[in-house]
Specification:
Elements: H1 3-6, H2 17-42, H3 51-74, H4 80-84, H5 90-120, H6 124-136, H7 141-171, H8 176-189, H9 197-214, H10 218-237
Length: 239
C-alpha cells in the first residue's frame, strides 16, 4: 500500500466534517428520542426489552441516517449515487465477505485475547454479553426474523451510508486516512459499548479502507453484513 496515496485528499465533495457530523448527530438524537419514548412507555420494569420494541425504536434512526445522507448527496452536482459512492460490483461480494468474516472471527478476537482483555481485566464473556442479551431477547420465530433483519440488513446498510459514505468522505477531503480514522472512531463510540469500542473501531477502519480503496460503498456494506452475520449465526446456533 502506498502510504503517500492514503494521505491524499479523499473524493471531492461539497460537504466537510461539520456537515457530516451534523447528519450523524441528528440521526443519533432521533435514536435517543425514540429510545426515550420506548423506555417511558414500558415503565420502570427491569425485564429485557423485547426485540420487536428494539426494532421499532431503531427504525427512526435508520430513516434519519438514510434521509440525512440522501439530503447531503442530493445537494451535490454529481447526484446522490455518485457523491455517496453507491455502487456494488460482483467482486465486492467476495472482498467484503472475506474481510467481514476475517475481522469478526480472526483479527478482533486475537487483538482482544492478546491485548484488550488482559489490559482491561475482562473476559470473553464480558465482551460477548451485549450480543448474547440481544439474542436472548429474540424469542420466537417472528422475533428471530426481526433480530436477523435488524442486525444483518438494516443496521449495516444504514450505518455504512452514514459513516462511510457521508462522514468518511466529508472528514477525508484533506486526507483520506483522516476520513477513515474519523469515521471508524465515531462509529465505535456511537455504539455506547466501552469494551467493544476497539473492536468496532478496527472493523470500521477495515470497512473504510475498502470503501476508500475501491471508491464504492458496496464492499463496506457487504463487509458489515458479513461481520454481523458471523456473530448472529454463531450465537443463534449456540442458543
Amino acid at each position: 500500500m502506498n502510504v503517500r496515496k492514503v494521505l491524499e485528499p479523499g473524493p471531492t465533495v461539497w460537504w466537510g466534517w461539520r456537515e457530516a457530523m451534523a447528519v450523524v448527530l441528528g440521526a443519533h438524537v432521533v435514536l435517543i428520542f425514540a429510545g426515550g419514548i420506548l423506555v417511558g412507555s414500558r415503565g420502570s420494569g427491569g425485564d429485557p426489552v423485547p426485540i420487536a420494541w428494539q426494532f421499532g425504536a431503531t427504525v427512526p434512526f435508520w430513516l434519519a441516517a438514510i434521509g440525512g445522507s440522501w439530503w447531503v448527496g442530493h445537494r451535490s452536482d454529481e447526484g446522490v449515487r455518485v457523491s455517496l459512492g453507491l455502487f456494488l460490483r460482483p467482486i465486492d461480494l467476495v472482498i467484503g465477505a472475506v474481510t467481514g468474516v476475517a475481522m469478526q472471527l480472526v483479527v478482533i478476537p486475537v487483538v482482544y485475547r492478546l491485548i484488550v482483555l488482559p489490559l482491561s481485566n475482562s473476559t470473553m464473556d464480558d465482551l460477548e454479553r451485549p450480543a448474547k442479551e440481544l439474542v436472548n431477547a429474540s424469542t420466537g420465530a417472528v422475533a428471530t426474523v426481526l433480530f436477523v433483519l435488524m442486525t444483518c440488513v438494516c443496521a449495516p446498510v444504514a450505518e455504512e451510508v452514514l459513516y462511510r459514505a457521508v462522514l468518511q468522505r466529508g472528514a477525508g477531503r484533506e486526507s483520506a486516512i483522516v476520513g477513515i480514522a474519523t469515521a471508524a472512531v465515531v462509529f465505535g463510540f456511537a455504539h455506547f459499548q466501552p469494551l467493544q469500542l476497539i473492536g468496532l473501531a478496527l472493523f470500521g477502519a477495515s470497512s473504510g479502507f475498502l470503501v476508500w480503496r475501491t471508491g464504492r460503498l458496496g464492499p463496506g456494506v457487504v463487509a458489515h453484513i458479513a461481520f454481523n452475520t458471523a456473530t448472529v449465526v454463531t450465537l443463534l446456533a449456540n442458543r
